[in-house]
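I am writing to request your help with a piece of structural work I have in hand. Thank you for your consideration; the sequence and its tokens are set out here:
=====
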Amino acid sequence: MACSSIAVDGRALPISLYSPPKRQRPPDSSVSRNSGSNFNFRLHFRVRVQFLSGSSVHVLLNGSRGRNQLWKVRSDVKSESYEISKSAPESFKFKEKLGVDVISKDDDGDEFVDNAVPWWEEFPKRWTIVILCFSAFLLCNMDRVNMSIAILPMSSEYHWNSTTVGLIQSSFFWGYLLTQIAGGIWADTVGGKRVLAFGVIWWSVATVLTPVAAKLGLPFLLIVRAFMGIGEGVAMPAMNNLLSKWVPVAERSRSLALVYSGMYLGSVTGLAFSPFLIHSYGWPSVFFSFGSLGTVWTALWLNKAYSSPLEDPELRPEEKKLIFHNRVIEEPVKTIPWRAILSKPPVWALITCHFCHNWGTFILLTWMPTYYNQVLGFNLTESGLFCVLPWLTMAFSANLGGWIADTLVSKGMSVTTVRKVMQSIGFLGPAFFLSQLSHVNSPAMAVLCMACSQGSDAFSQSGLYSNHQDIAPRYSGVLLGLSNTAGVLAGVFGTAATGYILQHGSWDDVFEVAIGLYLVGTVIWNLFSTGEKIID
């Protein structure tokens, strides 16, 4: 059936299934106007036809001239019932051709608007991907920071000194280091969906096995923690690959800020719930409960996610058009142009600054509860709860910085300038507030300095962490793997060095090293970084 019609005041209004509705004149009885006046009228209507004998069709007619006048015309449509065969063409879809806002009647005769598509199906698919990545990073840091709390009763039970604790904390980074570049290559060639699913499953299993390994002995614990790092190591390159394909440039900073705030809220969740679980059920319960959550996420991810908008059969055309606006649909990556990547000064600026940034970040991530316990005199529960404040500040600041950065870009400021401003805040803010820790006399002020340090650090999500997609969108996974390898080396050396420094020095020495690296990073970033695409 190629055409149907609706009778209005004895005239037939044709409805074609294969072409948009034509402009029609409304029935005279429904409109009062002065004779001889010019009357321009445009008929918009959305209709759903049910092929049942005696059905009613309600048509919404919206007048022009800004009068917002509404005509509602009712007509009986009678036809014989029939079935549409499976061979009916794809174009035989009323919803796609005519729209779906329809006035229907319930059993009592009351009218209501029937929307054929539920709101959750109209939710932008790119933001579904972003939210799922956010939740993966939430789990990522929950499973990572639980050791920073559990290490206190574990070191007491197994009689570990500060050097051994530093070795255990850094063993995570051994595996994390191995999969940075490999994860980026894998994500850019086979797709971020599979890589991120692998990572979550892998680190969740390693988390559950941690108490078993600890009871078997220190070497087994070191191996399991390194295995956990292998799984978490592919997460950031895979996420970066996914967002480079799904998120348009105008939404890049805020989407990355939201995903990385998942890490911060994961730290909040882990630090808040770990003391409760340890006191109630013992330290092994932290690893068992947190690790099991990965299975729930994996089921949702495999059902909802796709590596690219081109692979999603349910992606709406208007969203696809938005994603690919001013972008060329690129072929999948088959080879990595290593020479081109490694010959660019902005790439080396990104790698160096990632190292400088992560030295301070990972020290605070792994050693903050110990600092609160040993220096500020907080007990286990207080250490966990006070550690929450800096991470909450980071979650807020990351999203604030993302919105500011995207707003500046949309108002015409160059991406290069925005990246430099945001990263300068991300370096100089922590350097200033860490320098104040040696001058404060109260625990409350120390916690405040930590919170402000971490809060300003979070502006880096709109600085260097957004820069991979700016300068090399096709190879963003590989590029993040390269720079994050340097960041992981900072975590390995920084976490282990902190344990050594504390045995031979003080916390002031620990903070001075971090401050120096923040200042070096500020200079290098402002001299050599760019927000322009430099690698095709």
In short: The first helix runs from residue 94 to 98.
